[in-house]
């Protein structure tokens, strides 16, 4: 019975989209052009180099080398091999869905088990820093301080998701219980791992480069197709009134939680496509805190367009989609909470201490002592925080090491 209902839903959905495209051909064409431009101008040039480099890093054994070196950090913190550190760094630098692509590559190469891959993919799909600071902060909000707030909440929340998902299927953990080795012994082992992996590559250099480029382009073409498709779907749902119908339902929920109803349409748009949703939220007539919270939420959720891209990439392996989706829900919760916490110290107080924010005759003027104390805190507090977090990570590592 369930499969019959699923078949009916699929058939009705596709028929609805086909009829909507026929009724609104001009608008569908414009939406397709918009999605294609987004892919050509932003996604393709930003992701292609990372995809090619990731393929080469894996082929030449560099991932294995870094994995051996990062094993003492990644195992106790995220319960994944050290090679996951490469995925975490490149995934955050290049933007989604790069984390899924890199994780899929490691799984195909048998570097990760399925459970480890599912843990890793749940927190390594993050937004590109250029998108947060450039498109959203400068382009939409016209305020550089917004980028610092959104980026801090987004990336710290991703790390918290990884720390949470380390307990996913903990009884199936494959923690490395090797004997304790020193730094130089680990460095030697990492070099041997790199050399052994490179020797296993029997293809010539030109063939390896060609395979890396072809594999990357195939994945990016798949991503481009999803971007165009969801751009058209988002436009058609708005034209046919489906979006307004859903927004009327969500507005009731928003009112129950005293959230502004003006953000219902932008929120729905952001659920499907992040760029359009972020732009609409920044233009809404509501408080800045609410705007930042909703933008942070849709950045963490990734949007159905990116989730479909991730699902198609993971479908090439045995990695299940559900842990990734659970990670998105956790990311939304953490990111929204951190945005609310960081709003005053990273946005309001930075605005207070900007050169043009405190006039001489203002009642909020600080005396000389308070001014320099707050300046000192503003400059040194992030450094102290990083040192404290680093010390905590080292402490946790040695505590966990005692139990191995």
Write structural notes for this entry.
- It is a single chain.
- The protein has 404 residues and is mainly alpha-helical.
- The protein folds into two domains: 2-352, no CATH class; 368-404.
- The chain is built from 17 helices and no strands.
- α5 (98-108) packs antiparallel against α6, α7 packs antiparallel against α8 and α14 runs antiparallel to α16.
- The model is unreliable at 175-179 and 355-374 (pLDDT under 50).
- It comes from Halalkalibacillus sediminis.
- This is Sporulation integral membrane protein YlbJ.
Report the C-alpha radius of gyration, rounded. Answer: 24 Å
- The total of beta strands comes to 0
Structural class by helix and strand composition? mainly alpha
SSE arrangement, N to C:
HHHHHHHHHHHHHHHHH
Domains counted in the coordinates: how many? 2
Beta-strand fraction estimate: under 5%
> How far apart are the first and last residues' alpha carbons, in Å?
49 Å
> What is the share of helical residues?
over 70%
Please report the number of helical segments.
17
The average pLDDT value, as a whole number, equals 79
General form: globular
Low-confidence stretches: 175-179, 355-374
The major beta sheet can be summarized as:
none
Keywords: Membrane, Transmembrane, Transmembrane helix
Organism: Halalkalibacillus sediminis
Pfam families: Gate
Protein name: Sporulation integral membrane protein YlbJ
